[in-house]
User: What shape does this take?
Amino acid sequence: MNHKNTEVPYIIPKIKKVSHIDASVRFVWNKEVRRRKDYKDFANYVYLEGLKRFPKHPTLRVHYALFLFHYMKDWEAGMKQMTIAQKLGATIDNRWIIFYMSKIYEQTKSGADLKSADILSLFRYKNHLTLAEQNYKDAREKLTDALTILANIRERKKDASAAEQDIQDVLQLSNLLDEIISHEKESEEHYQALLESHPFSIPVLRGYASLLTDIFRYDSEAEIMYKKANDIEEELIRKNPEENIMVGRKRGTKNQVGARKAKAFGWTKKAQQINKDYYTQTKSNSDKVTSQFQMYILAYAAPVSVILFFVLAVILFAVILFRTGDIEMNLQLLSDMCNADRLICELAYLTKMYEMYTDETYLTFDEVLYRMQDRANVLHDTTVNNIFQKVSNLIDWQDLSITTFVSVHLNGVMIHQQAQDQALINAINSYSFDLLLLSQQGGEMQSDSKLDTIMQSLINGPTALAEGMKNAIITFEENMNRQNSEMIIISIVMMAAGITFAIVFGITLYLLLTKLNKQRIEILRFILSIRTNVLRAMRVRLAYVDDLEKGDSNDIEKVWQNMNKKVQNERMNNFKKLNNVFSQLKVNLTPNQRHGNQQQSVQGKADKIQQLIIMECHKN
Assistant: This one.
C-alpha cells in the first residue's frame, strides 16, 4: 500500500536530526487531527523523507512501523519495517511481533476465526528459519576459512622452514572444524523441526537442500528436495498465478546441485591463487587445441569450402539455363493454347451456322462445310503437333478430367461415347476426320438423325474442347506460378549459400594470411637469433685463435713467472706479518728492562729470531 501523497499540502520541515522527525509528526497524537486523511498522509511523507536521510537508523524504523500499525492500519508494511529494524540491531519484544502478526493474519483471512496456535506456529516458523539460515551462513564462512587454510598448507608443502606455521594452521583448522560441526548440527536441527511442522514449505526445502549440498555434500538427497520444491512452486503458480509465493533461496547453489564455485564460498584471492598453475596449464592446452583447430581449418575446410562454392555457382548457372528453356516453352504453349481456343470458337460459330442454314445465308452450304473442315484440320495440327507432341512434358494431360461427346461411325451407325483423359487426346486427333465423315454421310442420313448428329458432334464437341483448354490454361498458370516461386526460393537459398561460403572463404583466407605472417615473423626471428649466436661464437673463437698464435712460444715462461711471483708474494706477506709481530713484542718488552736480566734474555732471543727470519727471506 503506497501512502505517499504526490501533492503535499503543507511545508516540509527541515530534518537535520532524527528527533526532528518525531517532533514534526507529533500532531497525529490529537484524535481530532489524525482523523483527517491529509494529515496522516503528510505524516507518512515526513517519515519517508526521514528514512531517505537516515536509512540505517533502527529506532526511526520502529517508530515508523508503529505509525503504520496504529494510524495507517497497514500491518504488512509495518511488519516489513519491524523486520528491517530488527536486522539493523533494534531490540523488539517477541510479544509485539506475535500481536502484529495476528493482525496480518486477520487481514489476509478476512475476519476468519483466529487461533493463537496458528500465530504461534507462524512465529516459530520464522524463528526457526532465521536461526537455520544464520547457522548455515556461519558454517559456510567457517568452511571457507578452513579451505583457505588448507590451501595455504598445500602452498607451503615444499617449504621446510614453515613447519611452525603449519602447526599453528593445523590447530586453527581443528577449532574451525569444531565450529563448523556445531553450526551445521544446529542448522540441521532447525531445518528438521521445520520439515516436521511445514513439510511443503518451499524456502525450507530449498534451504535444507542448500545445507546438504554445500556443507554435507549430500548431492543426491539435495537433488530430491530441490525437485520437490520446484514441483510445489509450479503447482502453486498453476493454481494461483496472481498470488505472491515465497520461493526461498535462489542463490549460492543456483537452485540446483553441482553449481558450487569458488565465489559461492567466498574464497579469497590468496586461496584462488593456488589453482593458478593449473589454470595456466589448462589455458596453454586450450591454446594448443585452438591452434590445431585453425590448422585443420586451413588444411581441410578451406579447400572444401572453395570447391563447394564453385560447384554451387556452376549448379546455379545450369539451373538458370534450364529454367530459361522451360520459360520459353511455356510461353510458346500459352500462344498455342490461345490459338486453339480461337479456332474452337470459330468452329462453334460455323457449326451453329450449319445448323441454322437457310438460302439467305451469305455462305453456301458447301462453303460452310469447307470452312468447318479447314478449321478442324488447323485445330488438329495445333493441338497434336504444337501442344501434345512438343510440350507434353510440361502438362500432364492424363490428369485433366475433361468430358466430351465423340461421334464414331461404326458399321454405318453413329454412336455417342463419353470419353475422359486419354480418350480426349484421341478425340482431338480424330476430330477433323469426324467432321469430314459427317460431311460425307450427310446425304445418306435422315434429316432428324442428321440434325441430332450435327448438334451433338459439332456443338458439344467444340464446347467441351473449349472448356478443357480453359482448364489447361489455368493449370498452366498455376504451374508457372509454382515454378516462379521455386525459382525465387532457389535463388534466395543459393544467394545465402554463396554469401555464407564467401564469408567462410574470407575468414579462412584471413586466418591463413595471419598464420603465414606469424610463421614468417617467427622464422625471421629464429634466423636472426641463429645468426647472432653464430657470429658471437665465431668472434670468440677467432679471438681465441689469435691469442694462441701470438703466445704459443711464451706460454710456458709466462706460467712459471706467474707461479714465482705468486710464491714470492706469499713469502713477503708472511715476513711482513712476522716482522710486525716481533716488532710489537720488542716494543712491549722495552719498558720492562728494569725488572732484571730475565727480560734482557727474552729480548735477545727475539732479536736473534728476527735476524734469522730476515736472512732466510734474503736467501729465498
